[in-house]
């Protein structure tokens, strides 16, 4: 029997992906080709205000006109097409199509020529207990055969059932499916979890090295489990076990495993959440997950606690969830109690706050990672430790993942193995100290170093060894114009230094205070005299400092809580980019969202206002507490401040001279062009270089 060729529909965004161009390019093609001999194909339907096209006609038009960057556009068209012109948006169609893709993968043959009864029989044969696809195949009714034909074309166009399945998932993300899009992860996150899970399985002395077991106790964490299983070498006989829940997310995961032809088994989970995973598996879980895309901190922590309670020392777990739940402060009392209970169990071996941007649908959200393992019952409760790490906002590169996985794998060991490992990111913290703190679990527990330390000879050779020679060269180049304070700077034979520190730790140790700006109304900033106002516009250079002012009486009457800056305060903002300004004179009003950093003059810990402002301008993160800033030894603070002030003063003089020279340049050009200025003292030049001068009428 020969199957009827199915219709293929495609959206404008799908055309852009098919042609491998940006979305606006497709609109440009349509407008430019409208009056040509080969106009762009007309839409065949409207889908919620968006136009839908015949995918085959569009592919043929791309070939005929030579447009796009995909040489295989006709063959690839089905992989970017849709079954429904109107994309009804109901989940039934999506689940039926994914079930048919899994069915074709299990049958290992085309299914487009089957009638409805044959498709139902095949589904019953492949999934007799209806754990993944049988109900979904039954649901479409009369549309089943047409869907099967579409699936055959889709699989052929995507070059395989697994790719076709992922293509359907991708379309679902783009259509805004709440359960799938809210929990979708970026490749960096799935890569980290898969690499870590594999290494935990490989290094576990209780596990078989060539027969790792991976358990998804939620039954719905498809992105993570698929990433783990796809990363395994073919020579390794891995086993995947998923919870036997019957929710749509769990059934989707099982269909996905069938489509990828990955073996898996069922984990019996009771109504109360109890399960029994034998052997030495690695549990892999993400919260929230497609089965429950919206979860409260209490729900997330309760589910994690349920997993941890049922683990023995032979088992490991990798849990991914929002950092606001796993690491950060400001939890409710109930959620904090559950998190503390997990910490007390001793099985939480490592806590990592990951950078932002790992959640596809919410790039501003930060995730955190928990790694669970043996509780080390032989270690006294007072001596227990947990490894903690904060990656800040650095991109999760392959090199970072490798070092982090190494750190977290070492965290599973005993005290001797941890002492033997050179950690790059993680550091051991007393579990008791974590339980006692009220702030972030990954914040530094070490006090800020305030005593200068001698710089090692080898380190001196690597960092700053050429500074003296470069200073001499610059001073020589400046000659007599070199600032006097800079001429007094000389090399030292006994270098002392203070390590850089985060602003969060410096603020926590009261070496610096962060003060909020005042919420000032725009109409109050028009005064001719009064306090100068410093806001984001001043920090970013859109408005000159001092151009906006607020009347003193208005400030006192309308904004009694507003603070005036003190001389040396650093005014800063985090958005649109970190910027800072040292208010040397003080007595300014800072407008929110700009804020003030005020160095503790009695205990500055090596902070210098000008250096602090310079470091802020170089930051990429918008979280000021994570900014790493440089410091100088106490004996050098005053001298450095004076030298920097003299350099700044000289730069200001030069900047004013530059502005004057620019004005001079503009004046010369304008005057000579207008004829009101001459460069030759009114002497008339004859010959080939003579100017043509229009004389007034009647002039001889």
Key phrases:
Rossmann fold; alpha/beta; 700 residues
3D structure, described in words:
This protein is α/β, with parallel strands linked by helices and 700 residues long. The chain folds into four domains: 9-180, no CATH class; 181-436, Vaccinia Virus protein VP39 (Rossmann fold); 453-497, no CATH class; 501-631, Alpha-Beta Complex (Adenine-n6-DNA-methyltransferase TaqI, Chain A, domain 2). 40% of the residues lie in helices and 14% in strands. It has 27 helices and 23 strands. The chain has a nine-stranded mixed beta sheet with strand order 6-5-4-7-8-10-9-11-12, sandwiched between helices. A four-stranded antiparallel beta sheet has the order 16-22-19-20. A hairpin with a 5-residue loop joins strand 19 and strand 20. The longest helix is centred in the last third of the chain and has 41 residues, at 634-674. The chain is globular and about 95 Å long. The chain starts with 8 loop residues before the first strand and ends in a 26-residue tail after the last helix. 37% of the residues are buried. Residues 457-461 and 690-695 have low confidence and may be disordered.
């Amino acid at each position: 029997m020969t199957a009827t060729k199915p219709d293929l529909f495609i959206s404008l965004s799908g055309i852009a992906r098919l042609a491998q161009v940006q979305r606006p390019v497709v609109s440009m093609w349509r407008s430019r080709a409208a009056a040509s001999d080969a106009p762009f194909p007309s839409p065949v339907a409207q889908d919620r205000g968006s136009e839908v096209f015949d995918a085959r006609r569009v592919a043929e038009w791309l070939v005929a006109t030579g447009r796009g960057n995909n040489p295989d556009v006709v063959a690839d068209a089905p992989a970017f097409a849709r079954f429904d012109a109107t994309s009804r948006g109901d989940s039934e169609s999506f689940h039926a199509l994914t079930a048919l893709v899994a069915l074709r993968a299990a049958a290992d043959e085309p299914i487009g020529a089957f009638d409805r009864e044959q498709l139902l029989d095949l589904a019953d044969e492949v999934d007799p207990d209806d754990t993944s696809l049988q109900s979904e195949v039954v649901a479409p009714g009369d549309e089943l055969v047409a869907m099967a034909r579409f699936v055959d074309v889709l699989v052929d166009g995507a070059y395989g059932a697994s790719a076709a399945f992922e293509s359907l998932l991708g379309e679902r993300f783009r259509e805004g499916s709440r359960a799938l899009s809210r929990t979708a992860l970026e490749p960096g996150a799935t890569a980290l979890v898969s690499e870590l899970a594999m290494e935990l399985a490989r290094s576990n002395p209780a596990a078989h090295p060539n027969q790792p077991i991976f358990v998804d106790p939620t039954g719905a964490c498809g992105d993570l489990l698929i990433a783990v299983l796809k990363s395994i070498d073919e020579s390794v006989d891995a086993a995947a076990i998923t919870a036997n829940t019957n929710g749509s997310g769990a059934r989707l995961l099982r269909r996905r495993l069938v489509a990828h032809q990955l073996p898996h088994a069922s984990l019996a989970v009771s109504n109360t959440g109890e399960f029994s995973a034998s052997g030495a598996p690695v549990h892999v879980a993400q919260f929230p997950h497609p089965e429950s895309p919206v979860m409260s901190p209490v729900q997330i922590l309760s589910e994690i606690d349920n997993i941890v309670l049922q683990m023995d020392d032979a088992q490991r777990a990798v849990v991914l969830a929002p950092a606001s739940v796993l690491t950060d402060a400001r939890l409710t009392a109930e959620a904090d109690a559950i998190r503390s209970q997990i910490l007390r169990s001793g099985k939480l071996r490592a806590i990592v706050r990951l950078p932002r941007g790992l959640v596809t649908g919410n790039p501003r959200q930060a995730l955190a990672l928990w790694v669970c393992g043996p509780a080390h019952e032989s270690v006294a409760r007072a001596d227990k430790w947990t490894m903690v790490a904060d990656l800040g906002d650095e991109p999760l590169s392959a090199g970072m993942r490798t070092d982090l996985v190494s750190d977290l794998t070492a965290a599973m060991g005993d005290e001797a193995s941890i002492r033997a490992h050179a950690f790059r990111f993680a550091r051991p913290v007393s579990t008791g100290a974590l339980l006692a703190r009220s702030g972030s679990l990954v914040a530094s527990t070490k006090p800020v170093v305030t005593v200068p330390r001698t710089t090692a000879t080898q380190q001196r050779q690597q960092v700053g060894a050429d500074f003296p020679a470069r200073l001499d060269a610059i001073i020589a180049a400046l000659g007599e114009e070199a600032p006097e304070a800079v001429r007094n700077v000389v090399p030292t034979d006994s270098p002392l230094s203070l390590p850089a520190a985060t602003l969060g730790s410096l603020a926590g140790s009261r070496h610096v205070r962060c003060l909020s700006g005042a919420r000032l109304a725009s109409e109050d900033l028009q005064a001719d005299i009064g306090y100068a106002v410093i806001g984001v516009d001043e920090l970013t250079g859109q408005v000159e400092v001092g151009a906006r002012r607020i009347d003193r009486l208005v400030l006192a009457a309308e904004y009694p809580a507003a603070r005036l800056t003190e001389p040396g305060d650093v005014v800063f903002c985090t958005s649109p980019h970190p910027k800072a300004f040292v208010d040397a004179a003080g007595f300014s009003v800072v407008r929110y969202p700009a804020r003030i950093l005020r160095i503790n003059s009695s205990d500055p810990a090596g902070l210098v206002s000008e250096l602090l402002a310079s470091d802020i301008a170089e930051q990429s993160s918008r979280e000021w507490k994570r900014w790493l800033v440089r410091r100088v030894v106490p004996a050098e603070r005053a001298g450095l401040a004076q030298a920097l002030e003299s350099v700044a003063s000289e730069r200001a003089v030069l900047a004013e001279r530059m502005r004057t020279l620019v004005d001079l340049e503009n004046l010369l050009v304008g005057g000579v062009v207008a004829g009101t200025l001459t460069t030759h003292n009114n002497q008339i030049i004859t010959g080939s270089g003579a100017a043509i001068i229009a004389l007034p009428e009647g002039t001889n």
